[in-house]
Amino acid sequence: MVDRRRRLLAALARTTPTSEGHRATTFELLFDLVYVFAATQVTALVAEHHSPHGVAQGLILLALLLDAPGTALARMDADAAAR
Questions:
Q1: What's the gap between Cα 4 and its chain centre?
Q2: Whole-model pTM?
Q3: CA angle in degrees (0–180, nearest 5) for 64-67-72
Q4: DSSP string of 32-59, one letter each residue
């Protein structure tokens, strides 16, 4: 887990600045939209279930949701290293 976070931070540090005219790709916008939709669904789940069980479910889903970008970056790094 710590190694995955370290790789995520290293990947973020590798980013290069873009020109002022740079625009987001369709894939980036889709990924952001899916991510925001998933976050709203977790929020709705916790708002509907006020029991400790419902809150625990929401926290677990939130943890998985927050870990998703790191997992995706790790998979992309592994695919790039295999080539």
A1: 13
A2: 0.57
A3: 115
A4: HHHHHHHHHHHHHHHHH--SHHHHHHHH
One digit per residue, pLDDT tens: the chain, 83 residues? 567 777 766 766 666 677 788 787 888 888 888 888 988 998 898 899 888 998 999 999 888 888 877 776 666 666 666 76
Residues 10-16: contacts with CB under 8 Å, at least 24 apart: 11/73, 11/77
Instruction: Report the distance separating Cα 47 and Cα 43, nearest Å.
Output: 6
Q: Which has the closest alpha carbon to 38: 15, 62, 22, 55?
A: 62
**Pairwise CA distance, residues 37 & 15, whole Å:** 26
Question: Would the CA dihedral through 30, 12, 23, 25 be positive or negative?
Answer: negative
Of the candidates 41, 69, 73, the one whose C-alpha atom is nearest the C-alpha of residue 57 is 41
